[in-house]
Amino acid sequence: MSKSKISTRHFAGQFKALSNEHRLTLFHRLMSCCEPGTRCCTEEAARCCVGELGEGLGIAPSTLSHHLKELNRAGLVRMERRGKKVECWVDPGVLEQLSAFFNP
């Protein structure tokens, strides 16, 4: 299989994950954790707590968790447990890949 086919399949999976309104909103909120004018600031500063991330969406915590896991499986979001909290962030490399896809 050619490299372009692999890339297309990879991006198709990411776009499928983003096709859900709540997942797209969550991804956008995570991107907004980044410093304006840059792809992303340091990984530590760009992280958001899951509880804060779901505020105002009107979905159950279990549904929020499901959506974040789908974004994580698609390679769009990274997650790390810290005690009772789960932190999520968008890897700056993911944003660079998406940008390169739309600006070949």
Short note summarizing the structure:
With 104 residues, this protein is mostly helical. It has five helices and three strands; from the N terminus they run ααβααββα.
Descriptive report:
The chain is mainly α and 104 residues long. It is 53% helix and 12% strand. A three-stranded antiparallel sheet has the order 1-3-2. The radius of gyration is 14 Å and the shape is globular. The two termini are 20 Å apart.
Major beta sheet summary:
3 strands, antiparallel
Task: Work out the radius of gyration.
Answer: 14 Å
Question: What general outline do the C-alpha atoms trace?
Answer: globular
Low-confidence stretches: 35-43
Tally of separate helices:
5
Task: Quickly give the structural class.
Answer: mainly alpha
The strand line-up of the biggest sheet is 1-3-2
**Helix share bin:** 40-55%
The amount of beta strand, in percent, is 5-15%
Order of helices and strands: HHEHHEEH
Mean pLDDT, as a whole number? 79
Termini gap: 20 Å
Overall strand count = 3
Features:
104 residues; mainly alpha; 3-stranded antiparallel beta sheet; 3 strands
Provide the fold topology:
Blueprint (H helix, E strand, L loop, with lengths): L2 H16 L2 H11 L16 E2 H4 L7 H13 L4 E5 L2 E5 L2 H11 L2
Antiparallel strand pairs: 1-3, 2-3
